[in-house]
């Protein structure tokens, strides 16, 4: 039984606590912490756990084998570095940290520790559809991938959602999952801005088309459209030398009514990727016990940050921007 | 240029007159007839044709090479027999005649004439979808057909539509097209009556499931549901020894809206089979010039009548009813 | 933690032992039994459980809270009756028992015990697709169901598979899941025998079309085709007064290759319903702790046996056979 | 009966001659011309037409009411200018002329003539799918278009097909049809070059992604992949403010076989757009009689040339290139 401490008891924190308590095999939540006492207590009540108000104390509690971090992004780096110091496996919700520099500090700390400890919460890698596509690509049957056509469409966003958030909060998922899917790294980024939908506001250019080129020359286009109104619609088509592989939409009944044949499109990302979250955490629990990381690593978190920075710059300049890490990918992460 | 005389100037008559005038190559309408003077005149105005009030006179007019019959069903037999006597090609809208006996008289008259003159207006044989399925079956790639699952769904019918009309006006299309599709003849019929939809009335059992067995042992089920509300929905799936072939629905754009992915289902049989009517008549015109019939023959019209009679009997008895013709299929119609 | 004893250590038994050990939360296998010592030992090794050679002893072991029965069908009744006597929850793989009479004895024993103890392993009730359809039907949006069109297609069967097995081993799944889906009971059965596929043998009529009518007048057709060659293909379309609801096929990538657009059809029922087995057992474990049964009951097992008997009779007679239980559905099972 | 003269008796010329003779209503081919005597004679034999070896003489023949030009591209301008001079309607296969300058000369000549005489053979405007999408867009139900995602995939090309031909011979169809579809004009072009497929050769970068921006700010991406191997695959998805509209693929039977559900993808552009060619010519014939042009005009031909030039430049520079015409769109072409 893996004893898990959860840092950050907001919505996502409570979600993971419920998941670990009700659905996941081989784990139990033994401690929670939050700077807000009320939140921490409410979360602790779900799982009968100890309550901390200081994340460091939670990390050092001997009744905590491994740590889940669901605090606000700016607080991630400190907790993760503590956990590495304590030699405890740590699952950090995305982002790994809010700056590429902080991500790099985490990478270096993990490298120095010599132990595989950090996993980032890019749950799409556990989605059945992406895995079916990956399996097809890895089979070699379709030859080398050449292009990816993707969409990340969201029903609507609030007025606090601004242009750069289309990268940091939305495309960030594609940034991680796509390079994993095709086993490649990014080289450059460009962003194209079509005319704006009437449903957006002055601080948000919506939609956007983000273009990424990988080191092998694969060209990716991601339509990011966060006020598309009709649903949460994630698509991914991989054009290969010997065929095209498209991720399926989730299966829903086929309805005949009102002169139309129709199926449901999801409207909520937590519904769309519900199973992915469960699989992700179950997988992390099993790996934490073995001391391995098979999900997105600290390096992947760093790559995502560097790529996001280039995309945000490309949003501003309209140019093709290079994507460059400050160090080569270490052997440790191969 | 085939000079065509059209007998019967109601809706269907005018439709065919417009078709022959505007769309069909190699034909012109030179004469029309109707017992109602007004109707005949209105129809004649479309195509600058001579007006008759007597179908026999029209048939004998030397400026009429071939005849299209769109008069009410009870009047078909007489006109067709006249046309055969005159040795002129004749296209009769369905039904060939209102009784199996009258159909048989027509068959015998055509046989005696020794010329292939009569075609019945079962337009589905010219539908692209059915032809694609037939091509697949005829390719031999899928082995022998074993079962057909079909639906004939219609939005709604009036209160004058009664239980036997589900056979005579609706399933009659499947009766003709299905035995052509699988190149087989019917042996027996059964009708199953599910509970009635709330949208029907006391004179109409709706829906019905009609079961046909062919001489080769192929089993066909046709769901006939004429108040299905949602559209005009024709399906045909052929289960073979080496695979299943399903007729495609007509192609319409795929729409994402309101949390649904949808395509249009037709609501009108004349839209669904519009192209079939054009192809049917173009084909008949070309064949009439050559003196051949490649579409549904008088024999097919007779078969349809015999099969329909068995189905209506099966509606009443609930039993399996044999489908028997009064003569073997003559060599002439092979 | 529910302590589970597993009776019968063949393939299905080992499957459930692995499931309970690796995937299910809140349960552990504490004892196994099999008449074959080797099998029992091998199974026990998976889960570090006690080994019995006598199912009664296992049932009475105080370290066994609940029992899973995966022994051959003929041995089910005895074990289930023992479990009822011991007041322990029991999950029996299908069939509940091999005769309707034995099923009825179990029903009566459970009734007398006054406790809800028995669940039958009809796992399709836990399939996502069927549940999506049920949710749609239960929403009332589509009005009353009138007809169900279903297929149960299987790649191929061995020469030991005979005509009645198309009911007992194959259609049995539809028998249970369909009446649950539409919340109705069966009234009569008929079986239609199309010409046989070349891939069958003299003891097996394949395919068959099984027709069931419910007390509310809903008409069901199930195509059972166990040598269809192309895959394991389960379909279920419900035609309602206000629309048609069709169960989706499992989602697989959409491939463009070789002049075709294609998706995978499953070939193995354990792949098709893998998630259903997991959900079924997880659900049973949780209910066993609470002392309730929300899955298929002993009554459902009895109904399935009575319905199967009528279908086998109908296979032989070609007639419509009544489906009659020896008692009314007791209040206890409502 | 429109008397048509056909200039150029190669494959496309013979195709149109057969079409005009066998399928089109209200036209007949009265004269053909080709610099190769053999070709002209063979073509004339199809339709019993007069033979010319000089296109000017054909145009001036009083037995020629209208002209179809299917000669090599470089010869178009001269014939079209002759036809304009003679005041005869002229249908020119694409391209209108091989340079933007020549196209502009034709535009100016037509303007001076004051008569609508020239139509260019962009047949996709007559495709049912594109028209269904246009109808949806024009209905206003989906709000303003924001982005178009398109593919133009072709099985394979010969070694004589070079990088610029991806524009001139392939994307040229999208260039015309897309601005018509969204009723807008192009502003700039960019071309992205992914890594090359192993099936290409040194003179051809394949695939390419062509990006077009319109004056209203609509962003278009067209994947041009001419050695995709699997088929001729034309896709067009229009993302609007209130929904997404995707052109349907042509309807083919749905097949279950070999553990897959599949439908055919076309492999030949003449099969994919067969009906479009027929509709295009029928429509042109009817318009020629009335003295109007409702299809692609000389101005559209000029726009296509200017856009193609910008795309070819963008292929070379890798930059965003402006698309500028030498004159404003004249009132005459509104």
TrEMBL record, chains A, B, C, D:
<dbReference type="GO" id="GO:0050112">
    <property type="term" value="F:inositol 2-dehydrogenase (NAD+) activity"/>
</dbReference>
<dbReference type="GO" id="GO:0000166">
    <property type="term" value="F:nucleotide binding"/>
</dbReference>
<dbReference type="Pfam" id="PF01408">
    <property type="entry name" value="GFO_IDH_MocA"/>
</dbReference>
<dbReference type="InterPro" id="IPR023794">
    <property type="entry name" value="MI/DCI_dehydrogenase"/>
</dbReference>
<dbReference type="InterPro" id="IPR050424">
    <property type="entry name" value="Gfo-Idh-MocA_inositol_DH"/>
</dbReference>
<dbReference type="InterPro" id="IPR000683">
    <property type="entry name" value="Gfo/Idh/MocA-like_OxRdtase_N"/>
</dbReference>
<comment type="similarity">
    <text>Belongs to the Gfo/Idh/MocA family.</text>
</comment>
<keyword id="KW-0520">NAD</keyword>
<comment type="function">
    <text>Involved in the oxidation of myo-inositol (MI) and D-chiro-inositol (DCI) to 2-keto-myo-inositol (2KMI or 2-inosose) and 1-keto-D-chiro-inositol (1KDCI), respectively.</text>
</comment>
<feature type="domain" description="Gfo/Idh/MocA-like oxidoreductase C-terminal">
    <location>
        <begin position="134"/>
        <end position="319"/>
    </location>
</feature>
<dbReference type="InterPro" id="IPR004104">
    <property type="entry name" value="Gfo/Idh/MocA-like_OxRdtase_C"/>
</dbReference>
<comment type="pathway">
    <text>Polyol metabolism; myo-inositol degradation into acetyl-CoA; acetyl-CoA from myo-inositol: step 1/7.</text>
</comment>
<feature type="domain" description="Gfo/Idh/MocA-like oxidoreductase N-terminal">
    <location>
        <begin position="2"/>
        <end position="122"/>
    </location>
</feature>
<keyword id="KW-0560">Oxidoreductase</keyword>
<dbReference type="Pfam" id="PF02894">
    <property type="entry name" value="GFO_IDH_MocA_C"/>
</dbReference>
<dbReference type="GO" id="GO:0019310">
    <property type="term" value="P:inositol catabolic process"/>
</dbReference>
<comment type="subunit">
    <text>Homotetramer.</text>
</comment>
<dbReference type="InterPro" id="IPR036291">
    <property type="entry name" value="NAD(P)-bd_dom_sf"/>
</dbReference>
<protein>
    <recommendedName>
        <fullName>Inositol 2-dehydrogenase/D-chiro-inositol 3-dehydrogenase</fullName>
        <ecNumber>1.1.1.18</ecNumber>
        <ecNumber>1.1.1.369</ecNumber>
    </recommendedName>
</protein>
